[in-house]
Structures are given as structure tokens and as C-alpha cells.
Amino acid sequence: MTTRPGPQEAHVPVKPKHAPAAAATPDPYFPTSGDHRYRVHRYELALDYRPGPNRLAASARLSAVADAALAEFALDLAEFRLGRVLVNSKAARYTHRGGKLRIRPAKALAAGAAFTVEVHYTGNPRPVRSPWGGLGWEELTEGSLVASQPIGAPSWFPCNDRPADKATYQIAVTTPSPFTVVASGRLLTRTTRASSTTWVYEQTAPTSPYLVTVSIGHYRPVPLATRPAVPQTGYVPERLVPEFTRDFGRQPEMMAYFTEVFGPYPFGEYAVVVADEELDVPVEAQGVATFGTNHLGGGWERERLVAHELSHQWFGNSVTIADWRHIWLNEGFAKYAEWLWSEHAGGPAAATHAAAAHGLLTGLPQDLRLADPGRKLMFDDRLYQRGGLAVHALRRALGEDAFFAMLRDWTSVHRHGVVGTAELLGHASRYAAAPLGPLFEAWLERPELPPLPG
Fold this sequence. Notes:
The protein is an alpha+beta fold. The chain is built from nine helices and 22 strands. The longest helix has 18 residues, at 327-344.
């Protein structure tokens, strides 16, 4: 069965007046990450990276606005060696320990004041420790990659590491010329001098720090479509090009279908990197997804990962959670995107996938509260499956036309914005013939698994 969105004329989206309150408070799962008293609106990163010794010499310039009077403020940054630290071009006092760079400007910043921060640093980047292993900058056999979700961004640049603090980025990476650099955004220039090449990327869409990425390796660019509506390119080790071309051959069709049901693709381009290593899971970033060699090989399990990562460009990257309690909004919609693609492409219907997921969850512990799973369970596989089921229940409650109109308007109203679960309830309720409170209560607030949506 092929799903088709219904008409939008009867559903007029309402623009949100403000971001969720959670966007201006510390993240309850990671209260020491970020500083909610200011907002960054632009990062300019200049990185000189030598893969052999894993050596990074870098500078970061941040343009920000103070939301409160600031005699001091903090950035998140791993244990690099610091050179100059400037605020508004003047030397500032600072301390740097425990992954926190605390800065005291020469003159206190007034509430509402725009300011700049410049940090120069060097060292050997390595992943940040977390309950899920190392996160962020990862050295490969030849090259490197970045996979930061949820708190790995400070492993390679100073940032206000909060998902709600979205900014634009310019990323310049200088590395030995045999290497290819892929980063978030559009490639502006590539300049070779002697044995080094500098790649400059610009990401103009607001981006959370954890969604910024860089990959460095020996890659061949592989265009995935001729005259695509959205440019799509793979960056793949030469020996894997035939396998990649086969396994990702349907991605342009996925892009066309998701654009139909989710709304316009929210960024200017989409890149897929296949790192020359095995990775636990693929990782989404803004406009980029990174896979491992073990994610090639064909079959539904690989194809669903391609769909899952692509759908995150709408759900998670453009429409971003205010804090990590709401991670089901990322993963539930991405899981359901897998089921929608299966249904559209002639595989099992979404209802069939939902039944299988419900059967699986029935035999597992009933201790996960989807709307606030807690840090320990935020990446539990049950969250993905139950999140997909919650979206399926919403589809059943709204009906086909209203559900797909709701989806398109959700990604339009909150394009490049910040949301929480309450925003989804308010938004979806405008498309419902009956109150959705009981459905959200059953699927999101209670740990017990509700019956399979009929």
C-alpha cells in the first residue's frame, strides 16, 4: 500500500509564539552541559588536523547574545591546551578543568548584549567519556570522524553544548592533501597549498552542537542521482563503491517520498559517509549521515537504516528537541519513517511492523516512560520501538489525510526550531476530531504498554 498525504487547505498551521520553556533551563539529563544564560548564533571554526599523530591546532570564534547580565560564563571544551582566550577582542581570565572553560571577560556583559568569544587551542582530540562509551571526535586507522550525540561536541570545539542552542557554522579544515574532508553544510572552497588542502564548509541552517560533524578519510565522491531535487553524494572508500551504489541506490527515491509526506527537505544537500571502519550504529548529523563498512551488505536491515538516518534530517535536525527528555520525538518518528518507507516501497505495511514491535515489547520490562525515559534508558531500543508505535497510534486516531497533513505542517511550523512533547500534543490536537490527551497519556506518560493500535 502506498500512503499519500491529504489536502492541507483545511489545516492552517499556527506559528509558535516562543520556544518551549525547557529551552532556557539546564538540561535535566545533563545539567552540567551548556550555559543557558546566553545563546550562540554563529561559530567559525578553523582546524588544522594531522591524522598520523592525531594532532589538532584550532581556533574558534563564537558570536553570541547574553540573555542575562554576565560577569562570567562557561563553554564546554575537552582537555586541550589553551592559547589565547578573548572576549570582544580583549584578553579574558579563565579556568579550564573538568571539560568546562569558565571565562571572565575584562568587562561584564549586560543583558541583551552581543559579544564574541575567541579560543585558540591545541592537542590530541579524543572522545568524551559517557555511559555509552566515547563520544565525539574519533581517530580512525586513516583519518577521523565525529559522532557527538548527545554530549560529544566538546571533544573537538568549544561550544554551548545544549541541543536547543542552535547556530550557523563555518568550518575550515586543513589536512594533508590525499585526504577528503566532509563537514556539515555546503562546500564553499577547496584550496591546495604545497602538501595540504583547506576545505571550507558553510552551514547556514541553525544547528545544534551535537549535530555538527567532520569526517576525514580516503574517500571517493559518488553522486547518488542525476539532476536531483536535493544534491545527494556518497563519500566512500574506493573498493566499496559498487556495494555502496547498490545498497544506497534507492535513497533518491526515499528522498522524493519523504519530501512528499514530511514536507520539503530542510537543508541544501545531503551527504552520506561510509567510514572505513565498523561502527556500532550509523550516526546522523546536520545534512550528513555516517555509516560503517558493516552497514553495507543489502537486505531490509540495511535499507531501513538508510531510511532512518535520512528521516532524521526532518525529525531531530531541523525540528530539534528542547532537551534530552524529548528524545522520543527524534527516534519515534525516525522509526516510523522506516515503516512508512517499507509500506510505500512494496514491503510489509506499517501496521505489520507495528504489530511486530508490539509483540516484541510485550515480552520486555514495562518500566520505560516514553515522554521522560531518564538518562539511563534514553537510547534503549524499547524507546525506538514504542516511539514508532506511539506515532502509529496517532495516525490511527487522526486518520490518513489529517495525519499526513499534521506531519507536513509540524515540520513546516517548527522548521529549524525547538520543540518538546507538549508542542506535539498541541499541534496534533488541531487535526483531531476527539481529544488526544488520553492517547498521549497512555503511550507517553505511563510505563505500561497500551494495546496495539487498531
